[in-house]
Structure formats: structure tokens, C-alpha cells
Design goal:
Layout lengths: L4 E9 L4 E9 L6 E8 L5 E3 L8 E4 L8 E3 L2 E6 L6 E9 L5 E2 L2 E2 L1 E10 L6 E9 L3 H5 L1 E8 L4 E8 L9 E5 L3 E3 L5 E7 L5 E6 L3 E5 L3 E6 L7 E9 L12 E8 L5 E6 L9 E6 L4 E6 L1
Antiparallel strand pairs: 1-2, 2-8, 3-7, 3-11, 4-8, 5-8, 6-7, 9-10, 11-12, 13-14, 14-21, 15-20, 15-22, 16-21, 17-18, 17-21, 19-20, 22-23, 24-25
Amino acid sequence: SEGIGVKDIKSIDYANRIVEWYVSFTSEGKEVTNFNLSDKLPSGLTMKPYADGSTFKMVKGNADDIQLNNANGTITASVAGPKTVDVAFTYQTTYDEIPVVDGFTGSSNTANFTWDGKTSTGNTLPKTAVFTPKGSHIANAEKSGTYNYATRTFHWTAAVNLDRKAITTITDTLGTGHKLVADSVKVYNATIGADGSVTKGEATDDFNITKTDTSFTLTPKSATSKPYYIEYETKDADHIIGQEDGSGLYENKIVVNNGVETTASVTIDRPNELVTKKGTENPKNSAIDWTVD
């Protein structure tokens, strides 16, 4: 049945770049012979012992009963039998950077089960679990923006260097129709949570900032591989909210080390409307009352 063998992800810790995997097999109370498990880690993942030094955490059963072992990233287990098998365990892997294999970003991890039953031989069952990271961690940044109708300014935020590699440059380029507010670029330290979320920390002076009206570049003053949180403001370039094509869409892009661009956008309601006028009929005198905003 489908539940005979299971391979799944138990947890992901983005802060420490740890993926915990779950493997289980049950013969459903029936005796089997020649039971074998082979689970080879894909490229980019490395076994990581638990805090107590153990390689595996047994959820069900006993590791010695199935000769559970790890040799250079290949996990094996076997039972000669005849014997019933009912076992479940977890193990941890770590990654220095998010794996990319054959164009796929993430890791596909397969456990292969084989066994002989009482009336069947050569049974095989592959079970696969897939680690697909959050999009922001694949892009190495996340970005968002809001518009303040009272101050007529856009407020932009970006969390960058989520892969925590050495930074050479961070460049943000505005789309059409708006320009950078002078001295509004602020850089903060950031913390990545186990769930992959990013929290703004204290202000930092780790970067030199080069600015134009439509872009800025951050260059580290000394080597750094930390994540950072950036805030800045922009205003419409001609002080009339809205684009020349009639839309209210404002965009910008940020990129770390010439990698993947991350885009944020804000769409303004009723663009290019300097004045609105509407009329309603007054039933008392058959006149029309006009309102101008």
C-alpha cells in the first residue's frame, strides 16, 4: 500500500540552513526477507549530526535491528529476515548554498526500498521528498513598497543577501516615473528566522553609497557576508502621480552581486487625475450640484 514506505521533509531551518528528513517503512505486520534501504544524498547536501552527536533520531523501532548506517552521504539499512519491519527515523542535512541541479533549484531526495515478501520477490518502492526553498531565498532578496497619499512618497524596503555570501555590490534601479528622495537610503543589519522570514535590526555603516536620481549602489567598506535590510523613499519625477502611458504602476529592481533581479511594484489609484468633478441633481430645485476635488 501507499503507506509502506514514506520519505518526507520534517522541518526546514533557514537560519542555520538545515533540512530535516523523515524516512519510514512498515511491512504491515507481515514477515519479509532481504529488506534493504538505500538513501543517497543529492549534490549540495551534507549530513549534519544532531546536537548530541547522533546521526539519526529513531522515531519508531531500533537502529541496530535494521543495521542503519551512513557512509559518506549514503544511508543504508537491511534486514535479512524473515522478520516484520516497522521503523521510522529522521536525519539532518545542511547546505552552504541552495542547490541547483539540472536547472532545478532545490533538492530531490529519494529513498529506495527493496524486499521479498511471502508470495512476492524483488519488490521495489522509491519514495522522494523535494526541498523547494522559498522564492526569496532562491532570488537572494525580497522587496516591497507602499505609497503614502498624504506625503506623496513611495516607501521601499528590501532584505538582501539571504544566502549570506560575500557581497561585492548591491544595486537598486528605479523604473520610470519616479526618483530617489535625497538622503533617504538607510541600511540595517538583518536576522533570518528559522522560517525564512527577515527581521530588521540596528542601523549600520557597513557600506559606501553611490546615488543618482534613479539608482543607488552599496559597496561594502570591508568584507561582509551578512544579510541586510534596506529602506528608502522615492517621489514622482514630475510631481503628477501617474505614468505617461496612463497607468499608476511604479517599479524598481534590486540585485546582489549581479545575480537575480528582485522587483517590487506599487500601483496608484486614479493616476494622472489632478482634478475630479462630479454632479448630482438637487430634487428640491431641479438644479445640479457640482463637486470639485
